[in-house]
Amino acid sequence: MKKKWLAVLGIVLVIAVAFLSGGEEAAIEESEEGEDYIAYVTMPENPVPMTGETISVYNWGDYIDPDVIDVFEAETGIKVIYETFETNEDMYAKIAMGGSSYDVIVPSEYMIERMIREELLQKVNWDHIPNVKNIDPRFMNEAYDPEAAYSVPYTWGTMGILYNTKTVLEKPTGWNVLLSEEYAMDMFMLNSPRDTLGIALVMNGFDLNSTNPEELRIAQDMLIKQKPIVLAYVVDEVKDKMISGEASVAMVWSGDATYCMSESDELDYVLPPEGSNIFYDSMCIPKNARNVAGAEKFIDFMCRADVAAMNYQYVGYAIPNLAAIELMGAEEYNASPVNNPPQEALDNCQVFRYLGDEQRIYDQVWTEVISAF
Predict the structure, then answer these.
(1) Given phi > 0 = left and psi -120 to 50 = alpha, else beta, which region is 10?
(2) Are 131 and 147 contacting, i.e. CB atoms less than 8 angstroms apart?
(3) Alpha-carbon distance 149 to 146, whole Å?
């Protein structure tokens, strides 16, 4: 969903002259809602005729600007077949079963680690992704892909608390706000076993990636005890619900918080100091991809500075693309406490790791949480 300071569909996108021609400022348009936005990319004057070639892209919901896809199709003549998923586990199940073939997928770090081990991904030919030069080197060679062989960084962010400043009179100081009877039937939790159980572990002083059965049972018991005060377990729908004021508190990813805050001045976000998850989502090519060359063109296109800047304004998640950040203005970009949190808060964040066979413990625990009355 687009932020209100973006163009609505139908408004022509204007080129970011500063990037493609040098020296001039990017054009600023005004949306129908009266909000200014910077338009970084334009449709080509003479679109390439559709060639009949297709690529299939499997991504999270609300995780790409649809206009980006339109521009890619117009520039290349390649038709994009686009589908979405809600959780890493949903995506993995579809890929692992082998019944579906996708050319580009966007998993998170621990799922990338798993898919590498299970040989479900193929290596990236970096000679075909020249725009990788725009990616901040600190996002490459992470533990989930130590040789930077299988994944191209797309976005990153944190898990935190979105709250309504009108109904939550004191800024939350930690995760314990999710256990407060004051917000009974007035809070949303994330319908994602790894994320929600991970935060429950952190709340009890345990490691985010713990596979200790006793520690997971403690986390489970806490979530079951909390369940009567939870309004609903949600994923993408949390954004519209928080914007419309259906609850006061929600467990959300930082990019969703950015979007919600752009839509409502009453919403704010906090990254709890006791610790949280920091995540990295990357573009990958599945082993059974049918159009690898098309996938490489799409990934390289997404790494282009003007495209990444345009896409950032839509998805709201922090990006690893230094050229795009420079194009948008690093000072303004880094002023966001959501996408650029204090280092001391990040120091207490952990990255999810692939748990191997121990993942079944999470599945069992989560089933008991969801089925509890």
Answers:
(1) left
(2) no
(3) 8
Residue 8, helix vs strand vs coil: coil
Tell whether the model's pLDDT for residue 17 goes beyond 50.
no
What is the reported pLDDT for 37? 59
How far is residue 243's CA from residue 261's CA, in Å, rounded to a whole number? Answer: 8
Domain count, the chain: 2
Task: Tell me the C-alpha distance between 118 and 297, whole Å.
Answer: 25
Are 357 and 227 in the same domain?
yes
Residue with tokens 């129908």: 32
Structure tokens at 70: 């339109």
Q: Is the pLDDT of residue 230 over 90?
A: yes
Cα→Cα distances 56→43, 204, 238, 285, Å: 21, 42, 27, 10
Q: What pLDDT sits at residue 148?
A: 95
* pLDDT at residue 18 in the model: 37
Asked if residue 311 and residue 175 are part of one domain, the reply reads: no
| Cα 261 from Cα 267, distance rounded (Å) | 5
**Domain span holding position 313:** 17-156+281-334
Residue with tokens 């621990």: 110
Q: Who's near 263: CB < 8 A, 6+ residues apart?
A: 3, 4, 239, 243
Round the average pLDDT of the chain to a whole number and report it: 89
Report the relative pairing of strands 267-270 and 152-164 from DSSP bridges. Answer: antiparallel
| Residue 123: CATH number of its domain | 3.40.190.10
Both 150 and 264 in a single domain? Answer: no
| 373 — pLDDT class (breaks 50, 70, 90) | confident
DSSP 229: G
- Using the structure block, give the residue that is written with the tokens 């408004």: 11
315-344 pLDDT tens trace: 989 999 999 999 999 998 988 878 788 788
C-alpha distances out from residue 25 to 11, 68, 98, 328, Å: 19, 21, 47, 10
C-beta separation of 99 from 269 below 8 A: no
pLDDT tens digits for 144-201?
Answer: 999 999 999 999 999 999 999 999 999 999 999 999 999 999 999 999 899 999 999 9
Strands (E), 61-191: 79-85, 104-105, 121-122, 152-164, 187-190
Confidence of residue 11 (pLDDT cuts 50, 70, 90): very low
Tell which residue, 268, 228, 275, 227, has the closest CA to residue 249: 268
